[in-house]
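Hi Prof. W.,

I finally got the RNA ligase 1 prediction working! I wasn't sure whether to trim anything, so I left the full sequence exactly as given:
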Amino acid sequence: MRRLGSVQQKIPCVFLTDVKDEASRKREHQQFQVVATEKVNPLAIEANVDDALATEKLDGTCCYVTTYQGQPYLWARFDRKPNKQAEKRFKKHQHAHRSCKGFSWNVEEDFKTVPETWIPAHRVKHHNGHPVPDEHGHIPGWVPVERSNKQYCWHSSVVDYEVGEALVLKPSCDDENMLEITAVPLAELQELTLELIGTNVNGNPYGLGSKKQPVHCLVPHGCILIRNPPPVDFQQLCSWFQESSDGQVEGIVWHCNNGTLVKIHRHHLGLRWPDGESGLANRPVTIRLEGTVDAYNSKGLLASLLSLNGRSFSRLQDVQYEV
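And this is what came out:
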């Protein structure tokens, strides 16, 4: 599986941004909006974004595969956040300065405790042995997805640690227009970040499954390519999102040759998301699983989907299995 930039930190916008005095469409309780200007971010220019690989930005929750208790394990995103008093000071600073920048943290006292298994994300800065928050006041990190933790039941549904596999959605090897849902050894996903999408994640913009038959899967970051991407130009991107059938996506992430990642989100352009059916939901998909019911956890999604092995669906959102 092709390895592209790992999503460990917040990805900067491909354009320089500005702040508007309007309630955020994306972040609850944030009384300002971050919007894109028409000026390309110098970081993107330096990374030669025009030659970068344009991929679909997926609307789910970020995950990571790395070792835990001696074996490859799925980890869930868990940002360490400020306590109530620190959060209040931070919000006051945001309101006064219309920005998150310039706020001073007491890293030892201002943040909530985290589980003992928590690890900071790659490239988080440290000071005096303590991880330092980003400009939004969070310390990005990860916790292992243990089956006993009900908070991560939907994460757990896509992995089977006994057989060491995860349920992955990716382009088919045989046809670039076709998707496939398949079981991939966790060892092959080691050190990759992926997006968990599905029925109970972020309002399910891809129409996967139902309450009675929930469907979730992991999508490796960078694997869904944007076909015929527009140039990095503000007006052309606005038009593409609104007029092109390929623009029915949450956003674009550009993977630059030097490893830099930059993105554009519909909200940066003042556009709605979701806005009708997504392009991913309408792509055809084939189920390719090679295990046996006895091998997989009988209560897991891998076992449930095994009955569909070899079947193709004209749309991803049509995938259903017997309860």
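The two ends are 32 Å apart (CA to CA). Does that look reasonable to you?

Thanks,
D.
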